[in-house]
Design brief:
Number of domains: 1
CATH architecture: Roll
Helix content: 25-40%
Number of strands: 8
Order of helices and strands: EEHEEHHHEEHHEEHH
Shape: globular
CATH topology: CBS-domain
CATH class: Alpha Beta
Number of helices: 8
Oligomer: single chain
Radius of gyration: 22 Å
Length: 196
């Protein structure tokens, strides 16, 4: 089987040899295409976990993978929800312990995740024409740090094909985006000015 491949010619290294560096990606701005800040699950394997796994295991797995979001998958490979580092590190687990009288290590992913029916997803068709600023505005409006992207054009089932993450967008912009807990839009600011 292997004899159909010919070996390649080699050369000895001499003189000054340098190492290639990846071309620095163009800095992302609010006006950059939204796809530049999307984690594209058609190219990158999604970090997934099962609903019945202990929350502490999910936390360790996130740290090992260097991610802050896990997609929670049912046995039939359908999406059950998502769990984020914020879910695990917030006061949510403490409230759950008090309400249910369970121990910290008994909390499962399904107890802390945002279930499917509470998740919003942005259609891929929208994302293709959107800018980074549109994604930031959408996240702000929903009050969430993550948004899923859904592709309804795949044959058969709808598929989650991407994730937007507030922290990832900040990292790529090279700036901290102030969260929006004040007025939602210029229209609201105007109406408060008029009302005042």
């Amino acid at each position: 089987m292997m004899n159909e491949y010919k070996s390649l010619s080699v050369q000895y290294l001499t003189g000054t040899v340098q190492i290639s560096k990846p071309a620095s990606p163009n800095p992302v701005t609010f006006d950059s295409p939204a796809l530049e800040v999307m984690t594209d699950l058609r190219k990158i394997q999604a970090a997934v976990i099962a609903p019945g796994i202990p929350m502490e295991v999910a936390n360790t797995y996130m740290m090992q993978r260097g991610v802050r979001t896990l997609l929670v998958m049912n046995d039939d490979n359908s999406l059950a929800g998502i769990i984020t580092a914020t879910d695990i590190l917030s006061e949510k687990p403490m409230r759950f312990i008090q309400e249910r009288g369970v121990k910290h290590n008994e909390i499962l992913v399904m107890d802390m995740m945002t279930p499917l029916e509470k998740l919003e997803a942005i259609p891929l068709d929208e994302v293709v024409h959107a800018r980074v600023g549109n994604i930031v505005a959408s996240l702000r409006e929903s009050g969430r740090l993550h948004a899923l992207v859904i592709d309804d054009n795949t044959i058969g089932l709808s598929r989650i094909c991407g994730i937007f993450s507030w922290t990832q967008i900040e990292k790529q912009l090279g700036t901290v985006i102030p969260p929006n807990n004040v007025a939602k839009s210029f229209a609201e600011i105007e109406s408060t000015l008029i009302a005042g």
